[in-house]
Amino acid sequence: xxxxxxxxxxxxxxxxxPRVRNHPRAxxxxxxxxxxxxxxxxxxxxxxxxxxxxxxxxxxIYRDPHSIGTDSHKRLRxxxxxxxxxxxxxxxxxxxxxxxxxxxxxxYYSSARDLLKFNKxxxxxxxxxxxxxxxxxxxxxxPERPDLTQEILSNMTYIQDQIIDIEGVRxxxxxxxxxxxxxxxxxxxxxxxxxxxxxxxxxxxxxIDILLTHSPPYSIRDHCxxxxxxxxxxxxxxxxxxRVKPRIHLFGHMHDGYGASLYKSEENQTLEGENSTSLSSxxxxxxxxxxxxxxxxxxxxxxYFY
Length: 306
Description:
Elements: E1 9-11, E2 18-20, E3 28-30, H1 44-50, E4 59-62, E5 75-81, E6 98-101, H2 111-122, E7 129-132, H3 146-152, E8 157-158, E9 162-166, E10 169-174, E11 177-178, E12 190-191, H4 196-199, E13 210-213, E14 223-224, E15 229-230, H5 234-244, E16 248-251, E17 259-264, H6 269-272, E18 282-287, E19 291-292, E20 295-296, E21 300-305
Parallel strand pairs: 4-21, 5-6, 6-7, 7-8, 10-13, 11-12, 13-16, 16-18
Antiparallel strand pairs: 1-2, 3-17, 5-21, 9-10, 14-15, 17-18, 19-20
């Protein structure tokens, strides 16, 4: 039974920008870059244990947290970015096994031309696997023909509402975000807020290791400084923390929220409510939005043991 209701949203007349109201928020432990709209500091104990997300000190996540310290694991190193907006060639991209891009590689007004350039650049990267989901700036991508997009992005695997299995690690990617209205030109893969949970998020499978979306869940590194609002999706939040429970959720879209936080289910009974279980689940949430205005962020490196 969905907890999400139409009354979750207020609407700004004419703009139709969803404003979330009276909705539970996630309780988070920030591992780096405490969001400027929140009070608090980095959880130094967790940051010391999990890592910093850099090449020399990657985030270390285990599929089974109870197996930490044993030596019977495989490892995949993920190198992750989002929202590079035609600036990916300016980045120093660490080596790894899997390169992940969570959308908005281009800008909307030159999307068709620049996706070709992006594909050419990704072809130069040494990673064995390269994954891409779309974002709202990719207006030249036809949501009805992912096969055509795969032909254009020939140097990577294009993921649109599907699972990719890489050496036993199950990854699901979905590009959708809440529809913002006619005044926004970069509206690829936008979806009606009142339907997005049932039509899109409810189809995310539960048996996955890593979730890729372009947009963030509500209250998780989703703040917009211009509107002073949290613009993530409450339906996505509920599906991820109460049902899907991936070990890692990667996204971008909201540039102010760049950074990583850890969610611990036992601390958020208000959000999980009747769906909570006795089994605790930790989820690493990472906003990968590289474009930080006058400067660029760094790719995030994650070592996943399974």
